[in-house]
Amino acid sequence: MKYDLTVIGSGPGGYVAAIRGAQLGMKTAIIERYNTLGGTCLNVGCIPSKALLDSSEHYHNAMEKFSSHGIQLKELAVDMPQMIRRKNEVVEQTVGGLSFLMKKNKIDVYHGHGSFVDNNHIQITKSDGSTETIETANTIIATGSKPVVPASFNYDKKRVITSTEALNIDAVPKRMVIVGGGVIGLELGSVFCRLGTEVEVVEFLDRIIAGMDGDCSKELMRALKKLGMKFHLGHAVTNVQATDKAVTVTVKPRDKEETFDIQADYCLVAIGRRPYTDQLGLENIGVALDDKGRIIVDHFLQTNAPGIYAIGDVVNGAMLAHKAEEEGVFVAELIAGQKPHIDYNLIPGVVYTWPEVAGVGQTEEQLKAAGTPYKVGKFPFKALGRARASMDTEGMVKILSHQETDEILGVHMVGPRTADMIAEAVALMEFRASAEDAARMSHAHPTYTEAFREAALMATADRAIHI
Question: Among candidates 270, 291, 327, which has minimal Cα distance to 9?
Answer without folding.
Answer: 327
